Amino acid sequence: MLTSMTAFASRTGQAEGYSWNWDMRSVNGRGLDLRLRLPDWVEGLEAYVRPALQRQLDRGSVTLSLKLSKDEQGGDQHVDGTALRSVLGALSQIESAAIQAGVSVAPPTAAEILQIKGIYGASAGENDTTALRKALLADLEHVIGAFKQMRRSEGAALHKVISEQVDRIEALVAEASGLLESRQGKAAETLRENLARVLENTDGADPDRVAQELALIAVKTDVTEEMDRLRAHVVAARELIAIEGPVGRKLDFLTQEFNREANTLCSKAQFNELTRVGLDLKAVIDQMREQVQNVE
């Protein structure tokens, strides 16, 4: 069953005096592109989160955000005087340097200073974020699970659409095969008329040369190989969409092969009905390729 690269999942949680909200979403991508927006004050969080996602996802542009806030009864907060003096000293140096350089720098507000890591936080003995990180990582597994479930649901819809498109391609190939006999009769008639016209206006035409030209025309209009490859591509497409796992890249390549054969069929058709079928094929293949872009 196919899996979609497009999905969304969110989850809220609470532990260790904190509340949080996970937000995970993705769109299609050539490979796996992870964009993490995590609080840097939780020790080692990203070092655990990134490998966890890489183990379970193969493709897609994935954004994972975590908003974390301290509960009102989550423990005493205090200002670290040493850290505060250090930051204020640094701000004073920056202001002095800016004045000397003739640059105007707006002073930070007290609220902005409190946001600086290490200034305002848990009471002594509560700065260890190991327990919080473990709670977050345990909750992340549920987020990833919900995310993958939505990918599978979206993939089921893609599977239905792409299967119908493959069926349509197979029907058009069969229709094209049925038209070849009609085209053969029409082409033979046209060739006889043109050959008779040439012979009437040519004295002593070389029979060998005429035979060579006829053989060349036959080769240029023969679409047997194209029809065989289109049928083989239909079989390959059905096999791919039945596989469990990421097959998006292979399906994308296969749609390119489908399109190549349809283009050749149109260029060799020399028969209005066969050209129409070839154009219908190209339209369905293009629609299929659009859907395949979302397959993991």
How far apart are the termini? 11 Å
Low-confidence stretches: none
With helices defined by DSSP (H or I, 4 residues minimum), what is the helix count? Answer: 8
CATH topology annotation of the largest domain: Butyryl-CoA Dehydrogenase, subunit A, domain 3
Helix content: 55-70%
The CATH class name of the largest domain reads Mainly Alpha
User: Over all CA atoms, what is the radius of gyration?
Assistant: 34 Å
Element pattern in H and E = EEEHEEHHEHHHHH
Structural class: alpha+beta
CATH architecture assignment name of the largest domain: Up-down Bundle
Strand content: 5-15%
Number of strands: 6
Which strand order do you get reading across the main beta sheet? 1-2-4-3
What would you call the shape?
Answer: elongated
| Biggest beta sheet attributes | 4 strands, mixed
Mean pLDDT: 84
Count of spatially separate domains = 3
Describe this structure in words.
- The protein is of the alpha+beta class.
- The protein folds into three domains: 92 residues, Ribosomal Protein S5, domain 2; 46 residues, no CATH class; 140 residues, Butyryl-CoA Dehydrogenase, subunit A, domain 3.
- It has eight helices and six strands.
- Strands 1-2-4-3 form a four-stranded mixed sheet, with helices on one face.
- Helix 7 packs antiparallel against helix 8.
- The longest helix is centred in the middle third of the chain and has 71 residues.
- It is elongated, with a radius of gyration of 34 Å.
